[in-house]
Write a structure and sequence with these properties.
Pfam families: Amidohydro_3. The structure is a single chain. The protein has 3 domains: about 120 residues, Roll (Urease, subunit C, domain 1); about 120 residues, Roll (Diaminopimelate Epimerase, Chain A, domain 1); about 280 residues, TIM Barrel, CATH 3.20.20. The strands form 6 sheets. The chain has a 5-stranded mixed sheet, with helices on one face. Strand 8, helix 3 and strand 9 form a beta-alpha-beta unit. Helix 2 packs across helix 7 and helix 11 crosses helix 12. By secondary structure, the protein is α/β, with parallel strands linked by helices.
Length: about 550
């Protein structure tokens, strides 16, 4: 049978499990062109089999919506994948050894780039010194970011490339660079990356995302993080090459709606993402009401006050684009809520709520701040892997804040109870692209009272990311939704809830609650067999 010209291609997937609210017992799905056309039972699929262009036998596999990673730095992720990545390196000595090997292997690089060191986990208890780095690199320029990307260690040769950097705030001899000094050396380091290297890194990052069942990423770019060319190049690459969708944000503060034109010219959907209200806990730069427990009276660094936040939110609301901020510490988050509330007083609460402005990280939320997020309809773009990496009574959060304050961080259950929309992400390369690991980290939070069900976390990592960009019709497998999905090899499907306080009916098969993979810590995570975006396959597992 020949197809009519322009007729969308139809595919029937059957003999598996389809995770869909349209039918909790679905085993089959039809995709027509770039959209889901039908979801239902194996018996009903028989009547469709002769009328489709292709029948795909799932052989028992699970089909879910593709994940959305709501906070990614694509080029930096790709550079870490293809270059020097110190994530998880257990000692300073081993880190220096890897730096030596990388320098020897890259003799033509004008500036050596690396990422991921975390001295809080090293027995030496300190970052590499300037002298050690100079020796390991043979005196070449090196830029090496801490795991949180808010501070860096560098070599003398790189400092010498940046005029007057030693006079900038954030430069302290013998300490990692922060603040203005860090931004200056970062700009110099990334200026050394050629367009070809940048494209190679972006391709590597998007390919890794697709291989993990990620169908969309939110690129958090900005003048202090990357460059306009980096953002526009990435958006062009994503538009030309089959792969995950890329939604771009540009973190530039606005004072009037007239300034929003440049945001649109760049292809960004908002002046949001990493528009810094403060820094990070690991680098002692997150802005706190009370001092850090391990830094002698230091309370971090604030970059935007409530007045600047109010001006930005009002300008974005009036321009019809999203506003957003990076805010981690309780003082920073207080400024955000006060600023957004002041903007609502100026332009109207309903308009602010409708704009779905978003806050990245939002870690130190008190009950009062959570109520403010709910009142203002602020989306919390959060990274559960931060808790997995640095939560608990003996890890970095507790070192920085003390155990009691550390236990208040990342209160996902309270946020959901209050009606705060959550969108999950990785902040890659801060923590790796790892969607099922992210869902596991939210469901098995190191502070039991902050845990959420696997279903709630999965929804926040799929539909939540789409809702964060204003789309309520996507991130779920129902007729009419975009055909963005992933096929998984996995074990038994279960309904996992945090503990017995959650209603037991939801775990009873008679409730019709669809199951998801068992994410109990220590169990193997699902393996992605195929990722499809807008009906087009963008990843197939080798030998599948």
């Amino acid at each position: 049978m020949s197809e009519r010209p322009g007729k969308p291609r139809t595919v029937l997937l059957r003999n598996g499990t389809v995770y869909s609210p349209a039918d909790p017992f679905a085993t089959a799905m039809i995709v027509e062109g770039d959209s889901v056309a039908w979801v239902g039972s194996e018996g009903a699929a028989d009547s469709f089999a002769d009328g489709v262009d292709e029948v795909a036998d799932l052989d028992g596999a699970l089909v879910t919506p593709a994940f959305t990673d709501a906070h990614v730095h694509t080029t930096a992720t790709g550079l870490a994948l293809t270059g020097l990545d110190l994530t998880g390196v257990p000692t300073l000595a081993e880190a220096l050894g890897r730096i030596r090997a990388h320098a020897a292997a890259r003799p033509a690089d004008r500036v050596l780039l690396g990422h991921g060191w975390d001295a809080s986990a090293w027995p030496e208890g300190r970052p590499p010194s300037l002298r050690e780095l100079d020796e390991a690199t043979g005196g070449r320029p090196l830029y090496l970011t801490r795991a949180d990307v808010h501070s860096a260690v560098v070599t003398t040769a790189l400092l010498d490339l940046v005029p007057r950097v030693r006079e900038l705030p954030g430069h302290t001899p013998g300490a990692p660079l922060t603040g203005a000094a860090h931004h200056a050396v970062r700009a110099a380091a990334y200026a050394s990356v050629t367009p070809a290297q940048r494209t190679e890194a972006q391709r590597a990052a998007l390919a890794r995302a697709a291989s993990l069942g990620i169908g969309s990423v939110h690129e958090c770019a900005g003048p202090e993080i990357s460059s306009e060319d980096d953002l526009t190049g990435l958006l062009a690459l994503a538009g030309e090459t089959p792969g995950p969708r890329v939604t771009g944000y540009w973190a530039q503060a606005l004072t009037s709606a007239d300034e929003a034109g440049r945001i649109r010219e760049l292809g960004a959907v908002g002046a949001a993402g990493d528009l810094f209200v403060d820094g990070s806990l690991g680098s002692h730069t997150a802005s706190l009401h009370e001092p850090y427990a391990d830094a002698g009276g230091v309370t971090g660094t604030g970059h935007l006050d409530a007045a600047a936040i109010a001006a930005h939110v009002a300008a974005c609301t009036e321009a019809g684009i999203q506003a957003g901020f990076h805010a981690i510490g309780d003082a920073a988050l207080t400024a955000v809520v006060e600023g957004v509330r002041a903007a609502a007083d100026k332009v109207g609460l309903a308009r602010v709520r409708a704009a779905r402005h978003r806050i990245e990280h939002a870690e130190m939320l008190t009950p009062e701040l959570i109520a403010g997020f709910a009142e203002l309809a602020l989306t919390a773009s959060v990274q559960p892997a931060f808790d997995a990496a640095w939560g608990g009574d003996d890890a970095m959060y507790a070192q920085r804040l003390g155990r009691e304050r550390a236990r208040t961080l990342n209160p996902y259950a309270a946020m959901l109870r209050a009606g705060v929309p959550l969108a999950l992400g990785s902040d890659s390369p801060v923590t790796p692209l790892d969607p099922w690991g992210t869902v596991r980290a939210a469901a098995f939070h190191r502070t039991p009272g902050h845990r959420v069900s696997v279903r709630a976390a999965f929804t926040a990592h799929t539909r939540g990311g789409w809702r964060a960009v204003g789309r309520d019709d996507a991130g779920v497998l129902v007729p009419g939704a975009p055909a963005d999905y992933a096929v998984w090899a996995t074990g038994d499907l279960v309904v996992q809830v945090p503990d017995a306080r959650v209603a037991d009916w939801s775990t009873d098969p008679r409730s019709g609650t669809p199951g998801l993979p068992d994410l109990t810590p220590g169990t193997a995570l699902p393996v992605c067999l195929r990722t499809v975006v807008a009906g087009r396959t963008v990843h197939t597992r080798p030998n599948e």
